[in-house]
Amino acid sequence: MRKYLEGNSRLFLFVVLITASCSSEFLEIEPQQAISSNMAFKNIIDFEKAIIGVYDELSSSNYYGKWFILIGDVLSDDVKLNPSSSRSDQWYEYQGNSNGQYQLANNIWFSCYQVIHQCNRIISAEIELPDSQENKYNDIVGQAYALRALAHFDLCKTYSQHYTFTNDASHLGIPIVTNLNVLSKPARNTVKEVYEQVILDFNTALDLIGDGSNSFYFNKNVVNAFLSRVYLYKEDWTKVVTFSTELINSVDYSLVENEDYSTIFSVDHSAETIFEINMSQFDNNGDDALGKMYCNHGYGLYLPTNDLINLISEGDARLSTFIEDEYLPGGIYGSRRVNKYSSLMGDDNTPVIRLSEVILNRAEANAHLNNTTDAQADLNLIHQRGLLSANEVTTSGASLINEILNERRIELCYEGHRLFDLTRNKMGVYRNDCTAVPNACTIEYPNNFFILPIGKLEMDVNPNMIQNPGY
Q1: What is the rounded CA–CA span in Å between residue 412 and residue 84?
Q2: Do residues 138 and 208 touch, judged by C-beta distance below 8 A?
Q3: pLDDT band (50, 70, 90) for residue 27
Q4: CA dihedral of residues 379, 382, 388, 392 (deg, nearest 10)
Q5: Confidence of residue 184 (pLDDT cuts 50, 70, 90)
């Protein structure tokens, strides 16, 4: 028998919620403690169930199931509101607050920390298992480390200014939570500290996690892909190239052919999908699904901007991202809708990271490293996959970086990237095609409202929490 033990085994967020909503008599059942995680983990099957529960939380409409993806686009220049929209118009117009519309700030925060909490339970569990189950156990714990890293990174993107906002990344990040201390009321770490923890967790995952090609679960390839993204945001260009190349050289992925481009978003495990959120007919978010926010058979609240559409050449496969809708009023609202998530049932998978993104990560990094030929080659690979007749890009320097960013905008639209691509490049949001109030059509960089406020619920229960400026 082999014994696995790491850290304490107490719940954290559970107690925060109980403190806010339940009576003192209930809390007195087990004063200053909660159920230890080894009471829940008795065998390897319990670990398997627990890690599936983490993925289930990722699919929540408050996380990758809808809002976390939407926020990166709704606050950007790729989306405008239709005439009857009543959801997230506060955020589109940069008027959100800590207790605002649909409790968005509270809900994304809670869902991400719930993922972290569930991962900590797996990582901290004390249990004895047969040696024959060591590889399976290590793989599950490796997934937990990787998913904890992802949730910390996503929180930092959403509630903190980008890494280079200050020269040493010393500005406020989010609380790093790696234990289950029930009495903890964590303060915010710096962004630098958060990135260090994210990278540490991803690297720990690489030492534990197994190989695999199922795009619904983390494996070594998925971790390498996310490290390429983390280092891109950190502007560690050499490491972006290292981890991107590790993934690109894998035999497990290839770009989908031009004529099959739309299948990336309509089939499971496409050739270029590295990690996606599984939304089956049994566990999808239904009317609360991401696609329902765009399509005419759902709420249809968000429309694509001509600012984006006009960047795409006629004949480009990425135009399949849009569809004509005869019922739209035209004029400023146009006649097209987003068609990336087209299922009537709302069971489109959410693509989280794709091969095309990793290739563009490497292109951007090489452009900054003045490896111009390599950067051009990667950019042309994506550009000419979209438009077969496209000429090769031959620009260099700042012009090349701008073309790469435009290609990211086209290729990754409505996958939650646009706002973060703007802010990490110290660019503002300039909406020429805009249905917001006039003062929300141009948002200069820097701006306090490029990030969400800490939700009121967290501010109420945690005296150590500092609110973001401006809220």
Answers
A1: 26
A2: yes
A3: very low
A4: 0
A5: confident
CB of 399 closer than 8 Å to CB of 383: no
Bridge-based pairing of strands 336-338 and 322-324 is antiparallel
* Phi, psi dihedral angles at 336 (to 5 degrees): -120, 155
Give, in degrees to the nearest 5, the angle at Cα 442 between 108 and 325. 70
Q: pLDDT, tens digit, for every residue of 367-413?
A: 999 999 999 999 999 999 999 999 999 999 999 999 999 999 999 99
Long-range contacts of residues 283-287, Cβ cutoff 8 Å, at least 24 apart? 283/56, 283/59, 284/345, 284/346, 284/347, 285/59, 285/60, 285/61, 285/65, 285/66, 285/346, 286/345, 286/346, 287/346
Question: Which pLDDT does position 8 carry in this prediction?
Answer: 34
Which helix (H) or strand (E) element contains residue 128? strand 127-129
Residues 6+ apart with CB under 8 A from 292: 286, 298, 299, 346
Residue 38's pLDDT band (cuts 50, 70, 90): low
Using an 8 Å Cβ cutoff, are 403 and 393 in contact? yes
Model pLDDT for residues 45-68, shown as the tens digit of each residue? 999 999 999 999 999 999 999 999
Q: Specify the range with the lowest mean pLDDT, choosing from 229-243, 276-290, 313-327.
A: 276-290
353 three-class SS: strand
In DSSP notation, 22-82 reads S-HHHHTTSTT----GGGT--SHHHHHHHHHHHHHHHTSTTTTTTHHHHHHHHTTTSEEE-
Which pLDDT value is given to residue 2? 38
At 470 the three-state DSSP class reads coil
Q: Can you tell me the distance from the alpha carbon of 261 to that of 340, in angstroms, rounded to the nearest whole number? A: 11
**CA 119 vs CA 3, 12, 151: distances in Å:** 19, 12, 10
Return the HEC string of 225-259. HHHHHHHHHHCCHHHHHHHHHHHHCCCCCCCCCHH
Position 256 pLDDT exceeds 80: yes
For residue 141, what are the contacts with CB-CB under 8 A and spacing of at least 6? Answer: 4, 47, 122, 123, 208
Q: Report CA Rg, the chain.
A: 22
CB 356 within 8 A of CB 256: no
Here the tokens at position 237 are 């260009």
Tokens of 105: 């700030």
Classify strands 336-338 and 2-4 as parallel, antiparallel or unpaired.
Answer: unpaired
Nearest to residue 196, comparing CAs of 236, 139, 140, 247?
Answer: 236
Residues 277, 257: Cα–Cα separation, whole Å: 22
The whole-number pLDDT of residue 31 equals 30
